[in-house]
């Protein structure tokens, strides 16, 4: 019953997390597009109002005319929409999901004793430490170099190095599935912290200065813009890190930290391609698709690198007997899938149940190699191959 309840909590939290994440990422992508697509106004009334950029757009049968003021309009409008709960809700639901699945079940999902044998409490503390320490390192880099000449480039290099080091360290300490998710979570934490500590406070300061009749300091808008740009480059790397836990060939690779860095770099390159595309279209320049091409080529290279070696014996060798199959299943799988422990509703302790779940067994243990979890029972490649030959030959239990 506990597992059943946890599955429902997992489902509902995941659903809520996806919904609010779509809202946050959608608004973020839109405003990045908007910022990079604005043109200088020519109408005298807009210039007199202090409009710095404008855009005409058509959508849903209507025409829209968004305008941007730098640093702020001359007076505050009566109705002002704030974009921050999308961010906060995404982080809160994501952290709740991470708690339910990974922290609450640290012994199963966080720890791989073949990598690092530590207690669940220590693993939980280290996982939470990743979220905090990465934010402090990232924020420190931005504070130290963000306002200096060439600061954007320096910050970009520094943050990239921090992400690579964190990816390597996480993959040395945690189960691969958890390591990938943890790296995505630490970057997502930095994104939401940017909103909480910099973007929204800066906007509130601007409003306070306007209400007090003081000159508006442009530094607040500049800092908020810088952190917002960082967030848009983090987005696709975070998404691929979060989705990776469904694909064992990624986090189960021999050099999985390089795989993680590679897919995140591909995401950043593809995102950069869309950012510069908006600018190029406004300026009438050629769209620099080479960044997207580089990101796609990197993904193709990773796919080729991770491709499994063909198992010639799968077709040339005779199918194994069911007795051989059952011996492997009993030794490697039944401890989590018997009458007492029914993980994910799957039981494998009788021939009939093995036959019933043959498709799932083949998919999880042979194709994806996600089971046994963290390879806790030390199933070998030869045993996976044996299960594969049995299934491909018809999964007979005779």
What does this structure look like?
With 398 residues, this protein is mostly helical. The protein is 67% helix and 3% strand. Helix 5 packs antiparallel against helix 6, helix 8 crosses helix 10 and helix 10 packs antiparallel against helix 11. The radius of gyration is 26 Å and the shape is elongated. The relative contact order is 0.08. The mean pLDDT is 91.
Outline of the structure:
The protein is mostly helical and 398 residues long. 67% of the residues lie in helices and 3% in strands.
Question: Which terms summarize this structure?
Answer:
single chain, 398 residues, mainly alpha, two-stranded antiparallel sheet, two-stranded antiparallel ribbon, 16 helices, 4 strands
Layout of strands and helices, then pairs:
Layout: H1 2-37, H2 44-49, E1 51-54, E2 57-59, E3 62-64, E4 67-69, H3 85-103, H4 106-109, H5 120-145, H6 151-173, H7 176-211, H8 219-243, H9 248-251, H10 256-283, H11 290-306, H12 313-316, H13 322-332, H14 351-356, H15 358-367, H16 381-392
Antiparallel strand pairs: 1-4, 2-3
> pLDDT average, as an integer?
91
- End-to-end CA span: 34 Å
3D shape: elongated
Counting DSSP H or I runs of 4 or more residues, the number of helices is 16
**Poorly predicted runs:** none
Judged by helices, strands and strand pairing, the structural class is mainly alpha
Fraction of residues in H or I helices: 55-70%
**Quaternary form:** single chain
Strand order, biggest sheet?
A: 1-4
- Main beta-sheet annotation: 2 strands, antiparallel
Strand content: under 5%
H-E string: HHEEEEHHHHHHHHHHHHHH
Number of strands: 4
Radius of gyration over all CA atoms, rounded? 26 Å
């Amino acid at each position: 019953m506990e597992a059943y309840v946890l599955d429902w909590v997992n489902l509902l939290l995941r659903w809520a997390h996806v919904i609010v994440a779509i809202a946050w990422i959608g608004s973020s992508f839109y405003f990045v597009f908007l910022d990079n697509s604005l043109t200088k106004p020519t109408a005298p009334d807009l210039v007199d109002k202090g409009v710095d950029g404008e855009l005409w757009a058509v959508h849903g049968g209507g025409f829209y005319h968004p305008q941007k003021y730098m640093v702020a309009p001359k007076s505050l409008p009566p109705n002002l929409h704030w974009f921050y709960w999308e961010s906060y809700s995404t982080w809160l639901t994501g952290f709740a999901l991470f708690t339910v699945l990974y922290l609450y079940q640290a012994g199963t999902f966080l720890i791989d004793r073949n990598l690092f044998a530590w207690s669940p409490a220590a693993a939980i503390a280290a996982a939470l430490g990743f979220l905090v320490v990465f934010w402090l390192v990232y924020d420190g880099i931005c504070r130290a170099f963000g306002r200096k000449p060439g600061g954007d480039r320096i910050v970009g290099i520094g943050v990239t190095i921090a992400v690579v080091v964190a990816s390597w360290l996480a993959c040395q300490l945690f189960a691969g599935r958890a390591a990938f998710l943890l790296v995505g979570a630490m970057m997502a934490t930095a994104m939401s912290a940017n909103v909480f500590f910099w973007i929204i406070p800066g906007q509130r300061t601007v409003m306070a200065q306007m209400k007090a009749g003081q000159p508006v300091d442009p530094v607040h808008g500049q800092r908020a813009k810088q952190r917002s740009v960082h967030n848009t480059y983090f987005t696709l790397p975070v998404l691929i890190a979060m989705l990776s836990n469904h694909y064992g060939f990624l986090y189960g690779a021999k050099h999985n930290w390089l795989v993680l860095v590679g897919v995140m770099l591909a995401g950043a390159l593809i995102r950069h391609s869309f950012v510069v595309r908006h600018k190029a279209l406004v300026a009438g320049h050629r769209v620099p698709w080479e960044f997207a091409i580089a990101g796609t080529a990197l993904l193709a290279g990773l796919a080729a690198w991770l491709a499994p070696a063909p198992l010639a014996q799968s077709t040339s060798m005779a199918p194994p007997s069911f007795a051989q199959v059952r011996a492997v299943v009993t030794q490697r799988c039944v401890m989590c899938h018997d009458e007492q422990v029914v993980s994910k509703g799957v039981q494998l302790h009788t021939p009939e149940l093995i036959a019933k779940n043959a498709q799932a067994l083949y998919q999880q243990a042979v194709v994806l190699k996600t089971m046994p979890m963290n390879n806790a029972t030390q199933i070998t490649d030869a045993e996976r191959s044996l299960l594969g030959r049995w299934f491909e030959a018809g999964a007979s239990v005779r």
